[in-house]
Here is the input.
Amino acid sequence: MELKDKTILITGSTDGVGRVVAERLGAAGARVLLHGRDEGRGKATVAAIEAKGGKAEFLAADLASLAEVRRLAEAVRKRTDRLDILINNAGVGTGGQGAKRQVSADGYELRFAVNYLAGFLLTSELLPLLKASTPARIVNVASAGQQAIDFDDVMLTQGYSGVRAYCQSKLAQILFTVDLAEQLEGTGVTVNALHPASYMDTTMVRQAGITPWSSVETGADAILNLATSPALEGRSGRYFDGQRESRADAQAYDQKSRRRLRALSFDLTGRLSSKSKEQQS
Here is the structure.
């Protein structure tokens, strides 16, 4: 894909694999909209991209708050009239052994809120911009660590573990990917998900007490493949393990589960589906 003058938003792009992706896209001529929580890291990443002749802007937001997700979307809309690629990369790790259950600003289980719900809402808010910029792509950075969603206890009030919460949230991303691909068929916007690499050398992995054994460069290669490869043009609703197309947990391909997650997500974010809006108009 020709990246010169393309506008790309990457969440979680001031550290780790997100930063590597942002720097490579900036070097390739794209206008990069960076996201993170830390102003200092944001400015440093902007400076690094600009030092190599790239264009970048930093947008601060805490994705543990749905209100801040909406503010992030509004900030994007104010800065650009097109969005060619959205990469939902930000996330919270497992927290390591003994991780305690935490909740978001909205009272939702933290990993479900940040890893899945924030991306669901941000994508929903920015879909009109993506549709106006076709062909456009959405990339959801998920994981090979997946666990079926327990719809009777999505917020994991019973039997909590950080690993279980992380794996459920990552599978939710993939269900969303498959579901959204069906909704976007024929629009010129594609959406795919991937596991970039196992145990990359990132803050998230180290905080979990795990010795990294993959590089962030390997993960960045996989993310950039979905974001920019001509071979992915028009292909949507796929899950990749690195750069190889693969199969996710069976729940991702269960239509009933995807419908349940969609309805729950609309409810939790306070959004109405298009069908509901039509019924109320």
Remarks:
- DSSP finds nine helices and eight strands in the chain.
